[in-house]
Batch of 2 targets.
Target 1
Amino acid sequence: MIGEEALAGLLKKPNLRMTRQRMIILEELRKVNTHPSADEVYEMVRKRLPRISLGTVYRNLEILSKTGEIQKLEPGSSLKRFDGNPHEHYHIRCIQCDRVVDAHMKCAFSFDDVPNEMRDFKIIGHKLEFIGLCPECVEDSLPA
Amino acid sequence: MIGEEALAGLLKKPNLRMTRQRMIILEELRKVNTHPSADEVYEMVRKRLPRISLGTVYRNLEILSKTGEIQKLEPGSSLKRFDGNPHEHYHIRCIQCDRVVDAHMKCAFSFDDVPNEMRDFKIIGHKLEFIGLCPECVEDSLPA
DNA sequence: TTTGCTGCAAATCCTTTGCAGAGGT
DNA sequence: ACCTCTGCAAAGGATTTGCAGCAAA
């Protein structure tokens, strides 16, 4: 889970406008719990705004996830990365430069309220990824 | 972390051949801890097999990650998904149909051996995703 | 010998971007 | 008014795929 405040504080841009398109995209996304893809959001929104473009949907999803209004369910960039080490370990990824390093640790869960759908999953494993700024990018982003 | 055995057991195909290309891709990936992209693997491997094609690299990375020899660092498909709920919760994704459902739980870490690079990261948050088969896909994959 | 794998190139899919006009604030 | 945002369409980048020959088992 991204700490929203931290991220919002880090990335929120000034001068954002609440357009009809942006608002409806957010509303539609809040209505469902199906984690739609950009294209699916486009289809949902199109029912209310037939003339909206896919490009606008992409642009707004990007902005809304940067301000912390929604979450993007794909860590890092769109580039897949491969790890020659098949053994249990986690990763930390720099949101700025997309670099990934290994993180060795244990991780324990305590379940609050497992939804039925999840109870019926056959769970094979899990992936944990920390998100942050790598040493170089921290330095670059600090005021000199 | 994917339970390799489980995954390997689930997805390993019979009749795989250990070709020169497949072996060298695996060897090169085992040598580094830099989590290269497919294209970077291609460049690494090209030094030893100048005539290998990018397509072959992609095909083998896919196979090696399905048999559990390596890990692919991008959960689910290449399709990004969006979640209208910005609050702290995790997800479980079906490896078969790519469906995502919410998982509400707490998660605690105990650090073994934090690498220096990680210590110097500015950590903003984390993402946890369980991987498994959803109820429908479990059913489909069972012998009738 | 069988049939999985390869190189090549084209195709596909998802996402991003340039532009000129529209519309928040 | 200012300047962000939009629709459209084209571009871009990553990944996949069809095919005919090659090579593990």
Target 2
Amino acid sequence: MEYALRDERALLEKYLRDRGLKMTRARETVLDAFLGLESHVSVEAVIEAARRLDPGVGQATVFRTVKLLVDAGLAREACHDDGSRLFEHAYNHAHHDHLTCTRCGAVVEFIDPDIERSQEAVYRRYGFRSSGHRLELYGVCPDCAAKDAE
Amino acid sequence: MEYALRDERALLEKYLRDRGLKMTRARETVLDAFLGLESHVSVEAVIEAARRLDPGVGQATVFRTVKLLVDAGLAREACHDDGSRLFEHAYNHAHHDHLTCTRCGAVVEFIDPDIERSQEAVYRRYGFRSSGHRLELYGVCPDCAAKDAE
DNA sequence: AGTCTATTGATAAGGGTTATCATTTACAGA
DNA sequence: TCTGTAAATGATAACCCTTATCAATAGACT
Ligand SMILES: [Zn+2]
Ligand SMILES: [Zn+2]
Ligand SMILES: [Zn+2]
Ligand SMILES: [Zn+2]
């Protein structure tokens, strides 16, 4: 965990140095805040976490830094829910799709090789070059279904 | 086509009557405007189309009515793009997924039985009851790829 | 330390959507 | 057809999330 944090910080530093940008205290704070949160967080949540580490961090800075993290490959936009976008860790967190419970909001991350393969076939069928996809399955999780049954 | 319009209007009227709502001129206008547009339209586009039929239609009314159309099963939210949501016809327009060119915005509607089947398997694997999904494939279409090659 | 430029945070502005509310309208019943 | 009542309308303001503006600050290099 400690090592992972260091890895990710080094990645961000390299990304910044490579393009003449600077590693600042605010960016450290936002990175730490983001890494300390679990998957699928809104910028709002990152703002709160960042201000727990350092009150006085501007929200504009958090928006800007999250965008940087995405560009640097440390974060990835997950499933922009209604309204606000959600982000998740991208470093050491391979591609996956989401199965979401529409009742309680529970999210299962899954990867299905058959689906991935079939998607490639669709790209070939229409002559498209692939550049990523988004698959969100919606349903009712076992827990919520059990509550219905009562 | 004429018949289809009548069908859809009858559907909306039934939907409204069943819950004590009223069929109004504004709702007729928005319905006609929406039906006159082709797939994947923003509310903005519906507002423009509606005002071509009847200037003075309030934008709030269009937003409200599009929501009604979705509830009535006449419209369906397609792929909420960056920012604004997009809607498409739902009546006599079976389920399908989207393959979108990230360069020119071209959209191919497709249905892949293998993918649909694999998705059902995912639902079973995690014990979820299915309630719909959203699959968006992104890539570069043949035309844009050809331009790249030049 | 000094210079130069990126970055910051407060604030305003932006775009899409929804809430408010006085007025108008649809529609069931008399 | 007339009326009463509740729903619907449209103008407007409010809302949320996000981005732009900008004077002040703080890295990174010499
Ligand atoms: Zn659930
Ligand atoms: Zn995820
Ligand atoms: Zn294209
Ligand atoms: Zn479509």
